[in-house]
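Our consortium's second objective concerns turning raw sequence data into structural hypotheses that experimental partners can test. To show how far this objective has progressed, the report includes one record in full. It was chosen at random from the queue rather than selected for favorable results. The single chain below, 768 residues long, was entered without modification.
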Amino acid sequence: MGYVRPADRLRGELTEFVGRRAELVLVRQALGSARLLTLIGPGGIGKTRLAIEAASSARRAFSDGMGLAELSGLRDPALLVPEVARSLGLADKSARWAVASLSDRLASRRVLLVLDQCEHLADACAVMADALLRACPGLRIVATSRHVLRVAGEVTVVVPPMAVPTDCSSAAPEELLCYEAVRLFADRAAAVLPGFAVDMENGATVAAVCRALDGIPLAIELAAVRMRSLSPQQVLARLDQRFQLLSGGGPADQPHHRTLQAALEWSYSLLTEAEQAMWRQMSVFAGSFDLDAAEAVCAGEGIAARSVMDLVDGLVAKSILSHAAGNAKARYRLLGTIGEFGLQKLRAEGNEQPFRARHRDWYTALAARREAFGLRRAEWITDLDTDHENLRAAIEFCVSDLREVAAGAALACHLWRYWETHGHLTEGRRIMAALLERLDETAEVRPQALWVAGFLALVQGDAAGARALLEAALAAARQAGDDQSVAYASGFLGYAMHWLGEEDQGHALAENALALHQRSGDQVGVVLAQMQIGFIHLCAGEAPSAADWFGECARTCQSSGNTWYHAYARWGLGVAALLMADHGAAAGPVRAALDSMRKLDDPMGVVLCLDALAWIAVAHDQAPRALTLRAAADAAWAAIPATPQPALRKHHDAALAAARDAVTESAFAAAVAKGAAMSRAQAIAYALGEPARPKARSGTGLAPAHPGRLTHREQDVAMLVARGLSNGQIAGELVISARTVETHVQHIMDKLGVGTRAQIAAWSAAER
C-alpha cells in the first residue's frame, strides 16, 4: 500500500461557510484531546460542512495531511476500509487484512481523517475506527452520523439548528443578520439573485422563512435558491408545500442533497421497522410531548407500550427526535420538517385519522382534569401551557373532519377556564365559533359549547354577542334536558343582561342558576353563582348585599376546597368594604387575593386586584401609587385582552381622575410610565410592597445599567448569550469552564436586575 500525502484531499466548497463559530470552537477544542469526535444530528443540519470546515482550519496540526471519506454511496461494509484508504491517497496492493495494512501505513503519521455519513455503516465504521486508533497514535478521526458510533473514547458534539430570531416584527436588518440562519439565507439568495440583501422591507419575511424551516441549513439553502424566481413573501407563503418547493438547486448537487425529501428519506431508510412506525405515529404531535403521551398515542399497530421508551431513546440517539425543554418530565420534539415528513408517510399508509383520534383523546383527558379550582391549579395550567400546541392541533383535526367535530367541541369545552385566565380569549372564541359552525344541531355537546362561547364573549366585553349565544344555549339546553347547561347558561346570561341594563331579569336568572347548582350538588357551580350574584350587587352599588354574598361564597369555597374562587371572593369583600368607605378593611382581603392569584397563575384575577388596589390607594391619598397601579392594570388588561365591566370601569376612571388632579403633570407622567413599564411580576411585587428587582427601562423591559457596571469578561459573555449560545458553547468560545460561564451569567443577571437569558440578550442588543 503506497502512500500519497493527502494534504489537499478535503472537498473544495463552492459556497461561503456561514456561522457556526461556537460549534467550530467546540470541535477544535475537542480535537485537542479526543481521538474520535462524532458530529451528530439529523439530515440537513450541516454536519458535513461543519466537519470539513473544522478540518480545514486544523490543517497545521496534522503534518501528514488529512482525508475525507464520503460514505453515502457505499453500501457494502466490506468496501469501507478500501474506500477510506483511497480517501487518504493510499494504493493497496497487499493481500493482507485491509485494516492491518492501513494501520501499518498510518502508524507513524499525524493524520486527520473525516468519515462522512457513517450511520448506515455504523458497525463497520466503529470496528475500523477502533482498530485504527489503537494502532495509530497520531491519527484523529472526525465522523458525521445521525447517531453515535459507540467506540471507546468517542466524544460527541450535537450539531443544533442555526439560531433564528424569535420576534422580528420590528427588528432592524443588522439585528436580524446577527442570526446565523438569516445570514445563510442572505448569502445563498445573493448567489442566485445578485444584489439581494436583507433590508427593512423584506427582513421580517426572511426571518419568518428561517424560523418556519427550524433553522435547518439544508432547508434554508434550498429555500434561498428559489429566490431566483420567487419573492421572500412567496417563499413564505408556499412553505406548506415545502417538500415540493425545495426540489434542489442544480444537477451538480450531491444526490442526497438534491431535495430535503431525499435527506429525510435517507434517515428513514436506516431505521428499523418499529422506529419507522414510531416516527410516523409521533408526527401527529405538535411542539413537544412527553413519554406518557408517546405511549398512549403511539402504542399499537405492532408497537408494544413497553417498547415505546426504547424506541424513543433510539430515535433521540439517531437525531430524529430532539430533547425539548421540560419541567419535571423529559420532553421530546420532532423538528417541523422532520415531523412533516413523518406525517406524509402516515398519510401514505392511510393511518393518520386513527392516530389523530388517539392524540385528541389523550389531550382531552389532560384538559378534563378537574384541577382548575384547587391547589394544583397552577400545575394544571402549566401542563396546558406546555401542551398548548398539541391542544390546538387536536382541535384543528376535529374542526377539519365533520365526524370529529363533536369530540373537538367536548375537548374545547374543558378549556373555558384556561382560555379565560391565561390570555387565550380570542383564540378560544375563534375555536368555539368554528366548532359551532360545523356542529350538528342535535349534538349532545352543543348546549355546553354555546354557553362556553357565550362566557368567553362576556369576559372579553362583548355583552351583546354573549347574550345571543347564551340565549341560544339556554334554549338548546332546555330542549335537550341538559340541566347542568341550563344552570351555567342561566348564570352567565343573568350577568350579561345585568351588564346590558336589564338588572331585574339578570338577577332572577342568577338566582335560578344558584338553585339549579345546589339541587345538582355541583359545588363549582354553586360558588360560581354565589360569586355572580355578589358581583351583580356590587355593580349595582349595593355594597352590603355584595359583601354578604361574597362572604357566603368564601365559606362555601373553604368547605369545598375551591382555592381559586376563594381568592375572587376575598377580592369582592375588599372592593365591597371600599365602597362602604371602610378603607381600613379594604386592602387586606385584596392583597391576600392578589397573593393567591399569583400562586394560582391567574392573569385575570391579578388585573382585578391591581385595579382594586389602585382605587384603595386613592382612598388613602396615595396618588402616585394609585397612578402606577392603574397604569400596570391597564397594561395587564390589554395583554389579556379584555376590559373592565362597565360598572367597575367607573371606579377605574374615577380613580384615575382623582389621582391625576392630586399631582403635577410631570409626577403624573412619571408614575404612569413606571407602571406601564412593569412586568406582571414586578407589578404584583409593587402592589404587595415586596422588594423587587430594579424597575424596567423603556423599550427593553430591563433594569437600567451602564455597560461599565459589567467587567470586560462579563460583557463578552453577555454578547455571546445574545447570540443564543449555551454555557458550554460560551466556554468553548472563551476557553473557560462552563461553571465559570454560569457564574458570569449569574453576576450579569444580578447587576442588570434581570432574571432570564432573553433579557440579557435584549440588554446586549440595546447597548450595541
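The partners drew two points from this record. The chain has a mean pLDDT of 84. The longest helix spans residues 463-480. Both points have been shared with the crystallography group to help prioritize constructs.
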